[in-house]
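Notes from hallway chat w/ T.B., transcribed later so I don't forget. T.B. wanted the structure written out for a chain they're using in a teaching module, and asked if we could keep both sequence and structure tokens in one place. Agreed to drop them here.
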Amino acid sequence: MKKLIPFFLLVLILPMILGANIAEESTVEPPMIVVEEGMTQPVFSKEEAIVERVFIETEVDSDGDGENDRIRADVIRPKETEEGLKVPVIYEISPYRAGLNPIDFHNVDVELTPINPNPIGGKPYAADLPGYYDDYFLPRGYAVILAESIGSGMSNGCPTSGDMQEVLATRAVIDWLNGRASAFDADGEEITADWSTGKVGMTGVSYNGTLPNGVATTGVEGLETIVPIGAISSWYDYYRSNGAVVAPGGYQGEDADSLARAVLTRNNPEVCLDLMNQIEEEQDRITGDYNEFWNERNYLNGVENIKASVFVVHGLNDWNVKTKQFTQWWEELEKHDVPRKLWIHQHGHSSPYSFRNEEWLITLNKWFDYWLYDIENGIMDEPMVDKQKEDRSWVTENAWPHEDVRDTALYLTSGSTESGNLSHRPVSDTNTSYQVIDDSSIRAQTLVQNPLEDMENRQAYVTPELTNAYRISGTPVVSVKASIDRPVANLTALLVDYGPDESSRIITRGWMDPQNLQSDSQSVAITPDKPYTFTWNMQPTDYDVAEGHRIGLVLISSDYEYTIRPQPGTTISIYPEQSYLSLPLVGDITEEPTSIKQIKDLINYYEDEGSITDPTAVRQLQTHLTAVELFEEKGETNKASKHLAGFKLLLNYHSDHMTKEVFDILQHDVDILIDKNY
């Protein structure tokens, strides 16, 4: 038989019971992340995670249907976010999740188009990264969002190959996480992100890493950091180079329009046909010029707006998204004092997840923890740069390019063999030219072999065997005086490492349309057989050339793997004595001068090429050196020494009339002669 509790006792006891329960509940703490050694730890269950699909409304209408585009996003977050835990987000967006359409490459076996002399009035097909974002980061207290960019998969709109519409659509996810945009489920019910702290980190490889660059330049609130891996900073430099139409490595004939068509995997894609045709026209494969189409896809223009930190990762052997992409991005980040970190490696178009897995995950963990959870773990006190060397070992440095790098001019000279030489000292100009006959069917790797042999399709110039090892760190530049027997051609420069065993390795290369003599933005007609000076940059590199090897420069016309491939026969006449290669070198490769005459020859050369601009300065410097020669002939070394010291004062006096490089070289040479002879 149950005993009944009198009502008056219930009145007294119940408030105490309820109060006790309330007090007990108030002491229960909400779930928290766990931090050890400066890193979040895996304490949340992926198996119990909440997974939801949302369609986020953007501010763009790229398909012109009168409604804002929506992008599909899959969200995975710890179940504890339903119990009060708020978490930051790691976000990757991709145009590749629904696969690719067959790619319609442009025909590159066509003739180049000359500019009218009298005018009137890329894609990096890397698969999505392995699914380690949610595997690794969700247990550590992060939500992960994987989205499809406009025009692909279940997102509507049209792909636009990186323009502002694509960037703003990508940004909508961050706006939603911060309450500035709306999202809906498949039934049209609005979904909010009240579990989010609002802090977001974006990452991805290739196209997936390119869109974070673009979004960062909008300065959107909530984007705290980006980790672009093998990413584009300027789409022009992905499909063009110094005015030349140039393919991404491995995708000859691709362009912005073929990429857009490849990722156009939405339902009823025909609504985007007009836009695809517009992209094809505006990209301008005819001239290759930089225009408004490319300017809108140049994220370098917006670096000053970046509020997020940037962790750049790139392969030194990535010929898909070439090294200029990360170099110019890195330089602009430095100019604007953006918090940053850099990993450069010896692999191609890939992520460190596949070759430096443990160190990569630890570094990425610390990076996201610092920027998204405000955990002080020392990541920003580490050296700024991790660089992988050719032997696959890693070193850390405080800057890139290397802090001790110096641009060093190596001059082209005709040699005693069929090849020419690369020398620190220019020789007297003989005004002799040597011919290159274009044959686009021959690959570059064939053309760089056996540099001492005569080959009509190239001109090769090599240094003597190096007595020390040297590091090339930065962007090589080539300046070539040449004439072309037709109104248009390709110009290609190949920088080569020649081993003592006759091996050859192309270190880097660069291309130019000679019609872009003055700028990338405007082609001008050139006169056949008239000499011009063409100057163009090669792709940046970081490469160690071993002792006993030789550095080579090979000049060709068309590059089978990258440029348009016209019919053979164009002849380019190169004037080596009026041409040079500028290498960003760590280490002094210069030859010591042996006579005053060599310094006088240098001054004449620099005056001819315009590096010394004042004729009076040249006359005074030469007169001073002539006096030194006379004293030397008489054996009056004391007077010769005093005049050389006076020459240094005169050189300093005229320093404003010459480039810094010329001033440094002349001063260096005079110091050598003084130390050697006096």
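Follow-up for T.B.: Confidence is low (pLDDT under 50) at residues 1-26, 118-130. Might be a good example for the class.
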